[in-house]
Design brief:
The chain is built from 18 helices and no strands. The protein is mainly alpha-helical.
Length: 377
Amino acid sequence: MPSEEMAERLDEVLDAGGSLAALRPKSQPGKTGGIVDQSPTPDQEDDDVKRRAALQIITAVAAGTAIPPGAFETAFSGLDEVLGQPVNIDDWQRAVREYCHLTPRQPNTGALIRDLTADSIAIGELIRREKTSSTKNELLHISAVLSALLAVQLFGTGNRREGRMSWTLARRAADTSNDQDLRTYIRSREAETGLWAGIPPADIKALVDEAAAISKGTPSAGLVRAYAVQAELAAMRGDGDSASRALNGMAEAFTNLPSTDSNYFWVSGESFYYWTQAYVHATTGNARSQEAVEETFSRTPIWATGSLANLRLVHSMGMVRSRDISEGLDEALSTLHECVTPRSLFREHMSIQILAALPPKARTLPAARELRALISG
């Protein structure tokens, strides 16, 4: 617990008029700081916990550092108890939509990890306390989405072990909620993240096959993405025929998507549909690559700077495959140099794929050496 002097100093810095300093219990005469004669009652212990949480918030704000996960909820838990309000599912769904809105717009991978972690902890506590099965299922759905969002951010920042744990939590929450579309989507999204992260192809295939089996062929955003990962995986191993069949399956599922998809996060819209085609055609050297890239550029919103940069790398791959080596390498390098965060799972994946597609004599070109140094540095 901060000293009385620290509490008074924080009160002075924040111009709180003594209200913050009062949160710290005063030492009794003749006793060491904060020690009282009698053993604390449960209420006193609860008050102490709330005071410590409040001081954690105050200290973090004064120092300009992150508020510890759970501190805010603990400090204001008494107000929730007095108000006696039930869990507000609408508020939590609004928070999830906000995360999904912000994720593709954040220039830095991992920018939402702190907030997602705090909300995941909070939702876990609500699930533990909730007695109504319908409300618990809705909370489980939200928990699965938060864990999936967190897993993507963790993998993107190199925290692979924590990312795997978060994906496991997402799958378990989705399975417990018995939401078929959600269960399908979580697995297909995990498979796609694993594809760019270099997870063994057999494990990616297992996730995609499981997603398809769970879906039972019912069109959903998860099934669309499962077919997309199948196509991308086949393209990476040079199997154009399998990639084409998977693209056809993706097209059929996409065409028959319900008007309102229950998985409102990462909805497989038109830009994703065309983006997958562009990637597959560029990777396999298909003549339709250029047309697919141009179509995808026209359907990608201008604010999606990360997606546009990734698409430029796909275009670079298409040029390299068509033996326009110099221009393809130049575009890849300029794209990475212009990115706020040049290192990302997909950008590293594409850079490696571009280098691997170069003919032997081209691998010693200065541009090729620079690209190799850029992704390994």
